[in-house]
Design a protein that fits this description.
- The longest helix has 32 residues, at 13-44.
- The protein is globular.
- It folds into 2 domains: 13-196, MFS general substrate transporter like domains (Growth Hormone, Chain: A); 204-379, Up-down Bundle (Growth Hormone, Chain: A).
- With 391 residues, the protein is mainly alpha-helical.
- Helices cover 77% and strands 0% of the residues.
- The protein has helices at residues 13-44, 48-75, 77-100, 105-119, 122-133, 139-165, 171-186, 207-228, 231-237, 242-266, 271-289, 293-322, 328-352, 357-375.
């Protein structure tokens, strides 16, 4: 019997169409922090309202993630995503109209709720479409490459906001709405699965089996936030300033891209690789938390950044192997909410605790997840092909 070799990822048109759509779908959320701050500073003279708007947006994302995922599972992720994206675009356009008409602060906050609620389900819906866009054998590499591209979106988003704001403060909002519409237009229709089952026939959600992999995602968010939110504080502790803080962020992003690229080339999504990544998180968090000089800080940041993409890939592939197709969008949306919760708790710890403690609390998350994974049978099945990212 002859076997059909999967299309190499670089020539996989459906994947790159999905990727272009996914990056556009992620762009508005990455633009939002600076866009809201610039907008409210220009209209009220203070950045504080921008922080409130962002807090409302994030809270709405978390509240809407699972319900939006359930909706996508019920009506089909392709059709459902188009609906969510168009409504979210309309929400940002409505926000621009409210700002142009000098709406009061409470009304501006209300206009953020709709796109926030809808945006919470986009991650799960897009990840569900990826499962139909590429073959199982290519999935680990596809996710690892996507993790590299996400870093580009995170860097490009604030630069785009800054450039558009020089023309008009409302342009970033309109660009966010346009990005959502572009995402809807580029969704790979041929890879769009139909609704998996009738609403009354949904299988059980495998929460217990998925707990270890959800813990990995929580740890990623928890530990990353202690670096991404506090680069200036970490630099100032060693006598640096804004320039050194920017270097820390650049090193973190560069290490993440390099780690994802290496994993896409030769990585394997087994339990030993996940345990190794968590061990590196532990090893990296200690020098970040304690004042061990620039060498220790940079080494810790590199260790954490280099293992972020691989651990994210492993957890995502393993979750797909556990989630029933009828609840896949809901499951990935829930995973997004778990990772965002970790990021939020890490950010809160930076604001409330001495600088040494937040990274060490992230290390505690890594240690607990490592212990869970080492003692659980959840990490042993090999549900996705050979689970290799190598050709």
């Amino acid at each position: 019997m002859t076997t059909i070799e999967p299309t190499p990822l670089l020539r996989h048109r459906r994947y790159w169409r999905w990727s272009a759509s996914a990056q556009l779908g992620r762009l508005p959320a990455a633009m939002a922090p600076l866009a809201f701050t610039v907008l409210t500073t220009a209209t009220t003279g203070s950045y504080r309202l921008g922080g409130v708007l962002m807090a409302v947006f994030v809270a709405a994302e978390l509240l809407g993630a699972v319900p939006a995922g359930r909706l996508l599972d019920r009506i089909g992720p392709g059709r459902g995503l188009v609906l969510l994206l168009c409504c979210a675009a309309a929400g940002f356009a409505g926000m621009a109209v409210a700002v142009a008409n000098e709406a009061p602060a409470f009304l501006l906050a209300a206009t953020v709720v709709l796109p926030g609620l809808l945006a919470g389900g986009l991650s799960g819906g897009l990840r569900t479409l990826l499962a139909g866009a590429v073959e199982d054998a290519l999935l680990p590499r596809a996710i690892a490459v996507d993790a590299m591209l996400i870093e580009g979106v995170l860097v490009a988003a604030p630069l785009l906001v800054a450039a558009l704001s020089l023309v008009h403060t409302l342009l970033p909002l309109l660009a966010m709405a346009t990005a959502y519409l572009g995402c809807a237009a580029l969704l790979p229709r041929s890879a769009t699965p139909a609704p998996a089952s009738a609403p009354g026939q949904r299988p059980r959600f495998p929460l217990r089996a998925a707990l270890c992999w959800l813990g990995c995602l929580f740890t990623i968010g928890h530990l990353l936030s202690t670096i991404e939110v506090a680069p200036l504080a970490l630099a100032q502790r060693l006598g640096g300033g804004t320039a050194q803080a920017a270097v820390l962020v650049a090193v973190l992003c560069g290490a993440s891209v390099a780690g994802s690229g290496l994993f896409a080339w030769r990585g394997r999504v087994g339990r030993p690789a996940a345990l190794a990544c968590l061990g590196c998180f532990l090893a990296g968090a200690v020098p970040v938390g304690f004042d061990l000089g620039w060498t220790g800080l940079l080494a810790g940041v590199v260790l954490i950044g280099a293992c972020t993409g691989p651990l994210l890939t492993i957890a995502s592939v393993r979750l797909q192997g556990l989630l029933p197709p009828a609840r896949r969008a809901e499951g990935f949306s829930f995973a997004f909410a778990v990772q965002a919760t970790g990021f939020g708790l890490g950010s809160l710890s930076v604001g409330l605790l001495p600088l040494t403690l937040p990274p060490l609390l992230g290390a505690v998350s890594a240690a607990l997840t490592c212990a869970m994974l080492a003692s659980s049978r959840a990490g042993r099945p090999e549900p996705i092909g050979t689970l290799s990212a190598s050709p």
